[in-house]
Design the sequence.
């Protein structure tokens, strides 16, 4: 009996040794924005096939929460649509490197049965979100849409109830094009909209738009495409009505001015004929110093993969591939990490 | 020969027969204290986190109706009213229905197996997760409210309560679903209160020639009334704290409106929506809102408990 139990113990010990050696794979934990989450998950899946000894876990908990966890050192990397403010960067003792990972446009999706294409002038879409334009039959909207039969439905404005990078970018653009909007609502990750219903997350707003005939709301381009929402052509600074496509978004991104020494900037109101007016990068947040060697190698490998092969998946999932010069700058920034 | 100890044991004392410290009693005392301390700890932590906002806004937090975290203006009045109103409407809808079901289940209109089945099904309603109610509300209640709401707004639009434009995600939708969620609470406790009415009262009533309905409305309901009131208050407490389903249905609007067909907001929904991304003074303001909600719910539950205990005492006297 005693010999048997000794054998059992020995075999258990050996199995645990084998098991623990299998668990010696490098583990990276990331958290942050929900907007790029589908793309990051795709990167993780594909990268995992090529590098089975590196296990990466990403949670889309929101840009703000991602920044908080990154600041507290609870994750290996963060992700944020709103990058990080100088104040937030100052709180991270190890220093921060911002790496643009991908980009996307924000579209105004609407639910008007029978209206397949819609053009919204600046006056129109700012007025809608300020609550000044209350019905679809308003002449301000009709002016840009000759020949389109607009129903006499009230406009249900669908906004975000939670704080988010999408909110930040959209309100930033509206504040840049309309002093009245800047005064009344302002820009921020959480704002108080003067009208409409609010839903949680891009999916919440998508659901609201789908439920109500006469609804209009702002969502990420990927969400609109995947959920087969119709979205409007917007008037850009040059007065042209542009539809959101990867090309028009990329044109906007290439006009972005980055702050000196930091890869952070937003094209708030881009010039250019073919630019779609609302597009933004989304960033990966990495610690500049004090990284564990094995984890750092794994992280660098992953981010390099994302910046190179990973950009292939961007189009399918509704994101805009990074312009070449941005990829170069991002790789340079990555190399500064110790 | 040993004489028995003459010390009388005080109730709740930690010592058995005034003698040794009883380990079991100490353990149970610690367990009870742990629950009280945890509650106080929660309230204290929230109070501490809310302190900056309390200093900044004071009592105007409850009277201001503008919530603009960007501009650091925090007025929770729309959310307080939204919470109270949605719970009240839910209660008005659920109370008659719940008491009716309770009466039905406590009388013998139907055979016992059927009554047991109905009772079981009503209690199953309580077991459905809140988020599932939200999803069901989105799929079923919102289209209904949009359709009937349009008719209502056209017919009764002159009353401020029913003015358009009609939104699917509105106070009315949330209240309807909340009513369904608190129904099991009201039914179960009311049924218990009705069944607890002593048989002597029931038989006495029939003996003096009252009909069944006269007995129900004249004798049973008044006797069970404190229990039913307690059920109502507890259901009210539950409705006020309901987060997920309401956030999915009510439209999350920070604006004060009269109309039931417009979107509104609740305190719980405000916290669920804004807390993850909040920073700085906004966190503190949200904690202040959380404090308000906790104290409100605690108050309502304490009143409910007190009424229930009084009801049980008053019934005990009748034999």
Sequence:
């Amino acid at each position: 009996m005693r010999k048997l139990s000794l054998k059992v113990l020995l075999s258990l010990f050996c199995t645990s040794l084998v098991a623990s050696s299998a668990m010696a794979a490098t583990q990276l934990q990331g958290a942050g924005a929900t907007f790029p989450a589908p793309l990051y998950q795709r990167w993780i899946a594909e990268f995992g096939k090529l590098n089975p000894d590196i296990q990466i876990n990403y949670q889309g908990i929101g840009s703000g929460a991602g920044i908080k966890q990154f600041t507290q050192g609870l994750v290996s990397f963060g992700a944020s649509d709103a990058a990080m403010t100088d104040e937030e960067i100052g709180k991270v003792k190890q220093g921060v490197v911002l790496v643009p990972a991908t980009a996307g446009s924000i579209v105004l999706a609407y639910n008007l049965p029978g209206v397949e294409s819609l053009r919204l002038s600046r006056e129109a879409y700012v007025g809608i979100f300020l609550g000044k334009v209350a019905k679809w039959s308003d002449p301000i909207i009709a002016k840009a849409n000759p020949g389109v039969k607009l129903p006499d439905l009230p406009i249900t404005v669908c906004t975000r109830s939670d704080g988010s990078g999408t909110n930040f970018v959209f309100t930033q653009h509206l504040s840049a094009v309309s002093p009245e909007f800047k005064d009344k609502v302002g820009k921020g990750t959480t704002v108080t909209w003067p009208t409409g219903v609010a839903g949680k997350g891009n999916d919440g707003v998508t659901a609201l738009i789908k439920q109500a005939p006469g609804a209009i709301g702002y969502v990420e381009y990927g969400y609109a495409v995947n959920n087969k929402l119709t979205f409007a052509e917007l008037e850009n600074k040059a007065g042209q009505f542009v539809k959101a496509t990867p090309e028009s978004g990329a044109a906007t991104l290439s006009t972005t001015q980055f702050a000196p020494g930091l890869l952070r900037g937003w094209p708030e109101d881009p010039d250019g004929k073919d630019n779609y007016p609302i597009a933004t990068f989304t960033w990966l947040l990495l610690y500049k110093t004090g990284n564990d060697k094995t984890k750092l190698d794994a992280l660098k490998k992953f981010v390099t993969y994302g910046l190179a092969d990973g950009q292939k998946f961007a189009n399918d999932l509704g994101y805009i591939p990074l312009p070449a010069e941005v990829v170069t700058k991002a790789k340079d920034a990555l190399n500064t990490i110790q | 020969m040993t004489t028995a100890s003459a010390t009388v044991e005080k109730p709740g004392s930690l010592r058995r027969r005034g003698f040794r410290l009883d380990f079991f009693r100490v353990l149970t005392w610690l367990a009870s204290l742990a629950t009280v301390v945890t509650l106080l700890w929660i309230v204290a932590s929230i109070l501490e986190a809310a302190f900056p906002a309390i200093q900044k806004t004071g009592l105007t937090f409850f009277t201001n109706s503008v919530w603009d975290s960007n501009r650091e203006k925090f007025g929770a009045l729309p959310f307080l009213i939204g919470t109270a109103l949605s719970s009240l409407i839910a209660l008005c809808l659920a109370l008659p229905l719940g008491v009716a079901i309770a009466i039905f289940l406590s009388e013998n209109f139907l055979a016992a197996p059927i009554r047991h089945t109905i009772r079981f099904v009503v209690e199953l309603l309580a077991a459905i997760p809140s988020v599932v109610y939200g999803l069901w509300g989105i799929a079923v209640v919102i289209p209904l409210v949009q359709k009937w709401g349009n008719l209502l707004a056209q017919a009764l639009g002159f009353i401020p309560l029913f003015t358009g434009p009609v939104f699917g995600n509105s106070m009315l939708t949330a209240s309807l679903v909340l009513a369904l969620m608190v129904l099991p609470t009201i039914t179960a406790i009311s049924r218990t209160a009705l069944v607890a009415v002593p048989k002597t009262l029931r038989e006495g009533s029939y003996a003096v020639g009252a009909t069944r309905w006269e007995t129900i409305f004249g004798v049973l309901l008044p006797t069970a009334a404190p229990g039913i009131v307690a059920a109502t208050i507890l259901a009210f407490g539950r409705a006020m704290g309901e987060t997920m389903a309401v956030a999915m249905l009510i439209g999350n609007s920070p604006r004060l409106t009269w109309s039931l067909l417009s979107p509104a907001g609740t305190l719980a929904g405000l916290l669920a929506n804004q807390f993850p991304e909040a920073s700085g003074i906004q966190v503190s303001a949200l904690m202040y809102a959380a404090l308000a909600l906790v104290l409100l719910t605690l108050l309502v539950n304490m009143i409910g408990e007190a009424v229930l205990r009084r009801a049980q005492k008053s019934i005990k006297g009748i034999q």
In short: Residues 281-317 of chain B form the longest helix (37 residues). Chain B has ten helices and four strands. The mean pLDDT of chain B is 88. Chain B touches chain A through 32 residues (CB under 8 Å).
